[in-house]
Amino acid sequence: MRRAAPDPVIEAQRRGPIPDDVDPAIEALVNDIIGKVADKWTMLVLEALDAHGTLRFTQLGKAVGRISQKMLTQTVRQMERDGLVRRRVHPVIPPRVDYTLTPLGRSLGAAFCGVWIWAETHHAEIERARRAFAAAEASDLTADAETP
Protein backbone atom coordinates (compact mmCIF):
# COMPACT_ATOMS: atom_id res chain seq x y z
CA MET A 1 0.00 0.00 0.00
CA ARG A 2 1.36 3.39 -0.91
CA ARG A 3 2.08 5.81 1.87
CA ALA A 4 -0.60 8.46 1.88
CA ALA A 5 -0.60 11.93 3.37
CA PRO A 6 -2.63 12.05 6.57
CA ASP A 7 -6.11 13.53 6.34
CA PRO A 8 -6.01 16.82 8.34
CA VAL A 9 -9.63 16.44 9.50
CA ILE A 10 -9.02 12.94 10.85
CA GLU A 11 -5.74 13.98 12.45
CA ALA A 12 -7.43 16.92 14.21
CA GLN A 13 -10.14 14.63 15.58
CA ARG A 14 -7.58 12.05 16.69
CA ARG A 15 -5.65 14.68 18.65
CA GLY A 16 -8.81 16.08 20.23
CA PRO A 17 -10.48 14.91 23.41
CA ILE A 18 -12.14 11.51 23.51
CA PRO A 19 -15.90 12.03 23.44
CA ASP A 20 -17.87 10.99 26.53
CA ASP A 21 -20.70 9.48 24.50
CA VAL A 22 -20.38 7.32 21.42
CA ASP A 23 -23.12 7.56 18.83
CA PRO A 24 -24.51 4.00 18.50
CA ALA A 25 -25.01 4.48 14.75
CA ILE A 26 -21.33 5.42 14.32
CA GLU A 27 -20.24 2.52 16.52
CA ALA A 28 -22.33 0.11 14.42
CA LEU A 29 -20.88 1.55 11.20
CA VAL A 30 -17.32 1.23 12.49
CA ASN A 31 -17.90 -2.39 13.51
CA ASP A 32 -19.47 -3.12 10.12
CA ILE A 33 -16.64 -1.47 8.15
CA ILE A 34 -13.91 -3.15 10.21
CA GLY A 35 -15.61 -6.49 9.69
CA LYS A 36 -15.61 -5.98 5.94
CA VAL A 37 -12.23 -4.34 5.55
CA ALA A 38 -10.53 -6.79 7.88
CA ASP A 39 -11.37 -9.34 5.21
CA LYS A 40 -8.13 -9.96 3.34
CA TRP A 41 -9.75 -9.82 -0.09
CA THR A 42 -11.12 -6.33 0.46
CA MET A 43 -7.71 -5.06 1.49
CA LEU A 44 -6.03 -6.75 -1.48
CA VAL A 45 -8.57 -5.31 -3.94
CA LEU A 46 -8.13 -1.89 -2.34
CA GLU A 47 -4.36 -2.19 -2.67
CA ALA A 48 -4.50 -3.43 -6.29
CA LEU A 49 -6.77 -0.59 -7.41
CA ASP A 50 -4.70 1.95 -5.49
CA ALA A 51 -1.53 0.73 -7.18
CA HIS A 52 -2.88 0.23 -10.71
CA GLY A 53 -5.82 2.63 -11.05
CA THR A 54 -8.70 1.39 -13.19
CA LEU A 55 -8.63 -2.36 -13.84
CA ARG A 56 -10.81 -4.74 -15.79
CA PHE A 57 -12.30 -7.61 -13.81
CA THR A 58 -9.76 -10.17 -15.09
CA GLN A 59 -6.85 -7.78 -14.53
CA LEU A 60 -8.06 -7.13 -11.00
CA GLY A 61 -8.23 -10.86 -10.32
CA LYS A 62 -4.66 -11.30 -11.53
CA ALA A 63 -3.44 -8.32 -9.48
CA VAL A 64 -5.06 -9.71 -6.33
CA GLY A 65 -3.89 -13.27 -7.04
CA ARG A 66 -5.31 -16.58 -5.83
CA ILE A 67 -8.90 -15.32 -5.59
CA SER A 68 -11.80 -17.18 -7.15
CA GLN A 69 -14.08 -15.34 -9.57
CA LYS A 70 -16.95 -15.84 -7.13
CA MET A 71 -15.05 -14.28 -4.22
CA LEU A 72 -13.78 -11.41 -6.39
CA THR A 73 -17.34 -10.73 -7.58
CA GLN A 74 -18.66 -10.75 -4.00
CA THR A 75 -15.85 -8.51 -2.79
CA VAL A 76 -16.14 -5.84 -5.48
CA ARG A 77 -19.95 -5.81 -5.22
CA GLN A 78 -19.73 -5.23 -1.47
CA MET A 79 -17.12 -2.52 -2.02
CA GLU A 80 -19.35 -0.93 -4.67
CA ARG A 81 -22.33 -1.06 -2.28
CA ASP A 82 -20.25 0.74 0.38
CA GLY A 83 -19.14 3.37 -2.12
CA LEU A 84 -15.49 2.28 -2.17
CA VAL A 85 -15.29 1.33 -5.86
CA ARG A 86 -17.02 2.44 -9.02
CA ARG A 87 -18.05 -0.26 -11.48
CA ARG A 88 -18.31 0.77 -15.10
CA VAL A 89 -19.87 -1.43 -17.76
CA HIS A 90 -18.86 -0.61 -21.34
CA PRO A 91 -21.56 -1.36 -23.93
CA VAL A 92 -19.43 -3.57 -26.15
CA ILE A 93 -19.54 -7.23 -27.11
CA PRO A 94 -18.28 -9.05 -25.18
CA PRO A 95 -19.16 -6.76 -22.24
CA ARG A 96 -16.23 -5.03 -20.61
CA VAL A 97 -16.41 -4.14 -16.93
CA ASP A 98 -13.81 -2.17 -15.04
CA TYR A 99 -13.35 -0.97 -11.50
CA THR A 100 -11.85 2.18 -10.01
CA LEU A 101 -11.46 3.35 -6.43
CA THR A 102 -13.74 6.21 -5.48
CA PRO A 103 -12.43 9.09 -3.37
CA LEU A 104 -14.01 7.30 -0.39
CA GLY A 105 -12.10 4.12 -1.27
CA ARG A 106 -8.85 6.05 -1.61
CA SER A 107 -9.42 7.67 1.79
CA LEU A 108 -9.96 4.22 3.35
CA GLY A 109 -6.68 3.10 1.79
CA ALA A 110 -4.99 6.13 3.32
CA ALA A 111 -6.47 5.30 6.72
CA PHE A 112 -5.18 1.74 6.58
CA CYS A 113 -1.81 2.95 5.39
CA GLY A 114 -1.19 3.74 9.07
CA VAL A 115 -1.54 0.03 9.90
CA TRP A 116 0.97 -0.78 7.17
CA ILE A 117 3.44 1.77 8.54
CA TRP A 118 2.91 0.46 12.08
CA ALA A 119 3.61 -3.12 10.92
CA GLU A 120 6.70 -1.98 9.05
CA THR A 121 7.96 -0.05 12.08
CA HIS A 122 7.37 -2.88 14.57
CA HIS A 123 8.12 -5.88 12.37
CA ALA A 124 11.31 -6.88 14.22
CA GLU A 125 9.63 -6.57 17.64
CA ILE A 126 6.72 -8.73 16.56
CA GLU A 127 9.04 -11.39 15.13
CA ARG A 128 11.07 -11.44 18.39
CA ALA A 129 7.88 -11.79 20.43
CA ARG A 130 6.66 -14.63 18.22
CA ARG A 131 9.97 -16.49 18.50
CA ALA A 132 9.98 -16.03 22.29
CA PHE A 133 6.37 -17.26 22.52
CA ALA A 134 7.13 -20.31 20.34
CA ALA A 135 10.21 -21.13 22.45
CA ALA A 136 8.24 -20.81 25.70
CA GLU A 137 5.43 -22.94 24.27
CA ALA A 138 7.92 -25.61 23.17
CA SER A 139 9.51 -25.52 26.63
CA ASP A 140 6.08 -25.97 28.25
CA LEU A 141 5.34 -28.95 26.00
CA THR A 142 8.68 -30.53 26.86
CA ALA A 143 8.07 -30.01 30.59
CA ASP A 144 4.56 -31.48 30.27
CA ALA A 145 5.94 -34.53 28.44
CA GLU A 146 8.53 -35.13 31.18
CA THR A 147 5.98 -34.88 34.02
CA PRO A 148 4.74 -38.38 35.01
From TrEMBL:
Ranges for domain HTH hxlR-type: 23-127
Alphabetical keyword list: DNA-binding, Transcription, Transcription regulation
GO molecular function, one term: DNA binding
Pfam families given in the database record: HxlR (PF01638)
Chain segments annotated as transmembrane: none
InterPro entries according to UniProt: HTH_HxlR (IPR002577), WH-like_DNA-bd_sf (IPR036388), WH_DNA-bd_sf (IPR036390)
Identification of the protein by name: ArsR family transcriptional regulator
Native source species: Methylobacterium tardum
Phylogenetic lineage: Bacteria, Pseudomonadati, Pseudomonadota, Alphaproteobacteria, Hyphomicrobiales
